[in-house]
Description:
Oligomer: single chain
Mean pLDDT: 89
Radius of gyration: 25 Å
Amino acid sequence: MCGIAGIISQNINKDKVKEIANLLSHRGPDDKGFLFLLHNNSIIKTKNLDNFDNSKLALIHRRLSIIDLTESGWQPMSDETNSFFIVFNGEIYNYLEIKKELETKGYIFFSKSDTEVLLKCYIEYKENCLNKLIGMFAFAILDIKNNELFLARDFFGIKPLYYIYKPNLFSFSSEIRPLLTLLNTKKINKQQIYEYLANNLTDYHYNTLIKDINQLESGSFLKVNFTDLNNIKIIKQKYYTPKIEELKDITFQEAKNKIRELFFKNIELHLRSDVPIGTCLSGGIDSSSIVSTIKYLYPDVELHTFSFVVDNFELSEEKYIDIVVKEKNLIGHKVRVKDEDLINDIDDLIISQEIPFGSTSIYAQYRVFKLIKENNIKVVLDGQGADEILAGYDGYSYLYIIELIKKNKLFQAFNFAYNLSKNPTKKNMFKLALKLIKRKLLFFLYLKNNKNNKNNLNLIPPYLNKEYFKDISFDYLNYFIHHRNDNIYDLVRSELKNTLFITSLPNLLRYEDRNSMRFSIESRVPFLTPEFTEFILSLPINYIISSNGVTKYIFREALKGITPDKILERKDKIGFTPPEKRWLFHMKNYITNLLQTSNLPFFNYSYIKEHYIKNLENLDTLDFTLWRIINTIKWIELFNLQID
């Protein structure tokens, strides 16, 4: 795991290269490396910028040493002919298998690193190498002979990659902050800030919240040709779209056995490392199954787990964490967060995340990774992606009811809804969901009837300034109308794909990446491999959600005898859920001052003062939209951003 960056331009400033490298230092504190392509096409590779000369291309690497800790794994890495050079962030878990394949083709390896395997796999197969990989990655490969830079991002977007593209400038980075140093003006993208404030979306599109900074989408690559530095050209292409075709003839037992087999394979691959590995442990099914499988496969391994707990909180998962730690003989570590702690860390949290985020729950994760750093663990496994693959959120159950009704399976729909309503944790949510579904259907119907009017001010939430946002579009909502509803007879599967690639998971992966790398920790997510994901998404929906409303049904069955029964039998979902209302209550003076001194054009301040500031004393009526408002205000201040 590392930090990577690069610049293509007529004149590359040494101080700028140094500044970018320093901004990425937390992603790779173990080492650094630079490559410069001079105007005469000679190459300089160095750890020291003192001998810097005028160049047209620079590659920057900050190293977090995980596999092959020796100098052989140093980057930027080249092949033997000095024709290709790579900077790489991530892990290729099946690098040993690919290495054997390449050795049969005559390739010789001089290191034990996955980086060298990736480089030579690209030399052999070019962009077709991507579909051979199992891993998380963002990398750039320089092809000297063709004046080309090839950049790629992994299948799910686990590792980030941002870029600036202008005719005379191309630059990329693992994070946004280094790219901000290259912009003359740091302006906010109005459309994207609206999507965040209104829909809590930040990562579903190639645009970011900052103008001129884009992100390479998951499962995509870029080819950058710099033969003419005044007319740099790029080609972007999608290389991965999940292959999903329902397996109608597979039995439940066959599917269960296959899931166990694939999950075991994923865990074994994700344990490849030359440094000790720990795990995050929330007490839920996903993280508990990861640690339980590790101990099942390797009973004698010394395994450290890291958990977030809150005292005097009704949603604490501590009792479940303790069950797993005790039964599996783990070395458990817990971080206890006080209600007033958030205010002390809020600036660092916002700076680390780089762009606004959904809720204060991100702080719980931030503190877990801080705890991991304090215990000198460099690599952890975490359960991100499981909810999006295995229908872990309550909303999937409600969609399933609608899907059954659409298919005229009315008895099944009624029976499913009845069984679901008997679950004490879902009874009230079921009634609420029906109201929300009705409201959304009416909302989409309204949009369809007014599809030629993209600027209808009535669709803008009341806490926003309608005049400021009058020219934004509703592309996100149109996506749901024109794509989501096309397949009304397969609503659950459609929604699973949507949360994997559009709404939920892209945000969660960014939170995970920034919080882990803030403390120089590599976080691995073993649920997210194409083979595992595509297999589950191809199963009959009643394998994933049982007839009595149990989500992750087949996975629970597959892990029986491995994960503790008390965990597999859980019907509630908590995760890293913090006492957000209590935290915001303890910040009431901070929030009040922030809102009263703010003067951004985004907001309807009279509405905010009436509906939010007055409710800070009443935890029951506190609206979490408030977090997005104060997060935006503080973000603009900390990053010194400009507003049109």
